[in-house]
Every structure is written in structure tokens, then in C-alpha cells.
Amino acid sequence: MERENIGDQIAEEVVGGSIVFSPDHTTCGLNNNSQFKVNDYDAAISFIAANWRTMSEKDMLRSLKAQGLITKL
After folding, report:
1. Pairs from 56-63 (Cβ < 8 Å, separation ≥ 24)
2. How do residues 33-73 score in pLDDT, each as one tens digit?
3. Which of 17, 26, 54, 59 has the fewest CB atoms within 10 Å distance of its CB?
4. pTM for the complete prediction?
């Protein structure tokens, strides 16, 4: 893969990170760090699908935790 320089404007539009679930859907984390126990996978996925355009991954994890859908390990 070839490296490519990007301008400042494009860099500001890039959102880093991703919420990654373990293969058995029992844990999840930001950038593949399994740091949360998943209490309700289906509800968590529905929440993410409904909010992915308006929330950052960190905000989603905070909200999922506040709703009891995930628990900090």
C-alpha cells in the first residue's frame, strides 16, 4: 500500500477508531481493545446503527454504558 499525504481539511474530516466486537459478541472495545462486557448485543448494534453518523465512537461507548448495554471490564 502506498502512503499518501492528505491536506489539513481532509484530516479534520477523518474520524479515527472503531468499535470492535469479539467473535462471540461477549466483549467490545475501541480499536479492538476488549474493555467492555456486552450485556445486550442486539440493542447495542441497533443503537450504533441509529447513531453512527451523529456520534463519535467514544460517545457511543459512553451512551451504551449509561444505558446498561455494556459494562466496563
Report:
1. 56/15, 56/17, 57/15, 57/17, 57/18, 57/19, 57/30, 58/17, 58/30, 60/19, 61/19, 61/30, 61/36
2. 779 999 999 999 999 999 988 998 989 999 999 999 999 99
3. 54
4. 0.73
